[in-house]
Automatic annotation (TrEMBL):
GO terms for molecular function: transmembrane transporter activity. This is TRAP transporter 4TM/12TM fusion protein. The chain crosses the membrane at residues 39-59, 71-90, 102-124, 144-162, 174-191, 203-220, 227-252, 272-294, 361-385, 397-418, 439-457, 492-519, 539-565, 586-608, 620-642, 654-674, 686-714. The keyword Methyltransferase does not apply. Pfam families: DctM. It is a multi-pass membrane protein.
């Protein structure tokens, strides 16, 4: 999702209940998204509604063959993506609404081989249906492969220069749509025959490689349009490694793969159609539809207003509201930056209003929105990929995430509260806030999420539970002022398809990287390197794994960051003897917090765009506020009770001591504790006390409490000295 959005001051109504949040969960319109009107708008709306309906129907009523479903899933996202997102900026009225007219003529020429390749895929279908076991290689090469590659290359390059009115469609993108259909149609023909079993061997049809090269190029181009260059660059580096690897020294070297052998496998369940697309085509798309139904029934507005009513009066109120609202919104929308622009457009201006600096206001929102990705029961989308990769039931993952999520949000809350105390900020007045009594009358709007949780823990499949929650969101809306009729349901299906494009394409791009890792064996060699480091120190190996996970995640959406890190880092941690759940949670956390880690912090940059602060300063501030997220993974590595592993006494003790440790850490970082400023010696003592509680042992916990008592006594004396001066 684009992090660009026009920033408005929050709409504050003058009604008697002071409802603050309006349309906070409306999807922002990205700078490169087309805004159609007239018959084009109706046509595209039919496409988006059809795409969402296809998934609901297939997942619940008439299942398709697995590979066919995934191929159609990716192809549909590409077709919608090239329809909605431009490859270059739009032309303005001063420029005559169109620039570089030559691009239209070149695209028109490229359309001919694109249509010919699409036609040939239907010819191949007739050949297969006629009883042929294979298609002639010459036919695949010259009548399908090279025309497809020529059209794809021309279409992508020309689309970089083609600039038209935002309401007009693009001929180069129409070429790419036809190419996407040609790739999908060929794969549907070939992968539904025994030929599929030959992928990765010298017997694989050459057409698979041509289709995979074109499909990979289309996925990377679409990723560039909806998620930026970071993931594209990483994907290209991994693709280059496939062919450069045999010439590299040390553990990076490997025997090598030919172009045909690699690409005949990359568009299978070893790569693009593998775990990441498996998850995006089932759980993720379903929960995006669920989130869209919640949006259409204005539940997002209710979440934010409820948070204001509950926490707005306390000191630094809007910042605490941001924590609660962003946690609720972030767990269902699956992207940190998207969460920032939805809730931050309201909370950031209000934080500035009560005294927060621009940098701090943006940082709080970025840290809180990022935490939404680790908030059960939905946890954005990364947890579904974790369940797919590890085979651990999703309900077990959601239970294990409870305490780490509590620790993260407790840390952000403590940071916000201590900063408010340090700077003397006020909360919002009662007459500025929504009326809690009125909002409590609509508490039934939480029912869809409760139904989701209950259904999951009653043993229903994730798909069935998600479908029940989606239906309940529509039913519950009939009790609210925002009733969902046929028009609103169709609108929800429309926005669900648009919301899903980015994450589906990103998962497909991550699948390319995962394919490279599995087919070249670089992940296994990295695991060996991690084992070598662990011989010196387990802690050093964990720190090394942390840096690699963050580095891989910089500039990437959470799902892609985790998918890549899970393929590279997690296997090495498991080989160290770490439980798979702990290893994957360790990697998952750092993939999530890469969104607030300088120098490339997408959530922080999104918040800076709204607050008007410097992007790098905001990312540094959000890193400081979310500092506990960099400690928590080490805490549950040393103390499995934090992941609900152990008896109830051990779990309760771990939660209490860890929460206390996080509080001390917040005080040490913020420089304020026990109602007075903390000098550097005290701050270091507080941080030491917090770190002593990481291991979770009785001795270290006792030492941590002792250090905290010493810090308290020092601060008490300091407060006594400052009291006469203040008087």
């Amino acid at each position: 999702m684009s992090i660009e959005r026009e920033v408005h001051e929050p709409r504050i109504t003058e009604d008697e209940d002071h409802i603050l949040a309006h349309d906070v969960d409306e999807e922002p319109v990205e700078a490169n998204r087309r805004l159609f009107d007239g018959w084009l708008l109706k046509f595209v709306t039919l496409l988006t509604i059809g795409y969402s309906t296809f998934h609901l129907y297939t997942l619940n009523i008439a299942p398709l063959e697995t590979w066919s479903f995934r191929i159609l899933h990716v192809a549909g996202a590409l077709i919608l993506g090239f329809t909605l997102y431009a490859g270059a900026r739009f032309a303005t009225a001063e420029e005559g609404w169109v620039r570089h007219r030559w691009t239209t003529w070149v695209a028109g020429v490229a359309m001919l081989p694109a249509l010919y390749a699409l036609y040939q895929s239907f010819v191949f279908l007739q050949i297969i249906n006629g009883g042929a076991m294979r298609i002639a290689p010459e036919l695949e090469t010259w009548h399908y492969g090279w025309p497809l590659l020529a059209a794809t290359t021309l279409g992508i390059v020309v689309s970089w220069f083609h600039q038209r009115d935002r309401a007009r469609f693009s001929v180069p993108d129409l070429v790419l749509i036809v190419c996407s259909a040609a790739v999908a149609s060929y794969l549907l023909v070939v992968f539904n025959t025994p030929i599929r079993m030959s992928t990765g061997t010298s017997f694989a049809p050459v057409g698979i490689s041509f289709a995979a090269v074109a499909g990979t190029a289309l996925i990377l181009e679409m990723t560039r349009r909806v998620a930026g260059m970071a993931l594209v660059v990483i994907g290209l580096v991994f693709l280059a490694y496939v062919f450069a690897g045999p010439y590299l020294p040390g553990f990076l070297g490997y025997p090598g793969l030919s172009v045909q052998r690699f690409f005949s496998q990359v568009y299978t369940d070893a790569g693009i159609l593998g775990p990441t697309t498996a998850v995006s085509s089932t759980y993720i798309i379903l929960f995006i539809i669920f989130a869209a139904f919640l949006q259409a029934s204005k539940v997002g507005d209710y979440f934010v207003n409820f948070a204001f009513a509950a926490a707005g009066r306390s000191r630094g109120g809007p910042a605490k509201v941001s924590i609660f609202a962003s946690g609720l919104m972030g767990m269902i929308n699956g992207t940190s930056a998207g969460n920032v622009v939805s809730t931050g457009s309201l909370t950031i201006p209000l934080m500035k209003k009560v005294g927060y600096k621009k940098t701090s206001a943006g940082a709080v929102e970025a840290a809180a929105s990022t935490g939404g990705q680790i908030m059960p029961p939905i946890m954005g989308a990364g947890a579904f990929i974790m369940a797919e990769i590890t085979g651990i039931p999703y309900t077990e993952i959601a239970i294990a995430a409870i305490i780490p999520a509590i620790l993260y949000f407790a840390s952000v809350y403590f940071m916000v509260d201590l900063e408010a105390a340090k700077t003397g900020m006020r909360g919002m007045r009662e007459d500025e806030l929504p009326k809690l009594k009125r909002l409590l009358k609509q508490v039934y709007l939480f029912i869809p999420i409760i139904i989701l949780i209950v259904a999951l823990f009653q043993g229903y499949s994730v798909i069935r539970a998600g479908t029940l929650a989606t239906v309940s969101a529509a039913v519950v809306s009939w009790l609210s002022p925002n009733k969902m009729g046929i028009r609103q349901i169709l609108h929800a299906l429309d926005i669900a398809a648009m919301m899903s494009i980015q994450i589906i394409v990103v998962c497909a791009a991550a699948g390319i990287i995962v394919g490279v890792i599995s087919l070249t064996g670089v992940g296994a060699r990295f695991s060996v390197l991690l084992l070598d480091v662990a011989q010196a120190s387990h802690l050093l190996a964990l720190v090394f794994a942390m840096f690699i996970s963050i580095l891989l995640g910089m500039g990437m959406p959470t799902t892609a960051a985790y998918a890549v890190a899970a393929s590279v880092v997690a296997p090495g941690l498991v080989q160290l003897g770490i439980e798979p759940l702990t290893a994957h949670f360790f990697v998952f956390y750092f993939a999530v917090v890469s969104a607030i880690t300088p120098p490339v912090a997408l959530a922080s940059y999104a918040a800076a765009g709204i607050s008007g602060a410097n992007a790098m300063s905001t990312s540094v501030a959000s890193f400081r506020i979310g500092i506990a997220a960099f400690i928590v993974p080490f805490m549950f590595f040393y103390n499995g009770a934090l992941l609900m592993e152990g008896n109830w006494f051990e779990i309760a003790r771990a939660l209490v001591t860890a929460t206390f440790g996080v509080y001390l850490l917040s005080g040490g970082v913020m420089g304020w504790m026990f109602r007075v400023p903390a000098a550097w010696p005290v701050r270091l003592l507080l941080i030491l006390a917090a770190l002593l509680m990481i291991e979770g042992g009785l001795i270290t916990d006792g030492a941590g409490i002792g250090a905290a008592v010493v810090a308290y006594l020092i601060q008490r004396q300091r407060r006594a000295r400052l009291a006469p001066a203040e008087a």
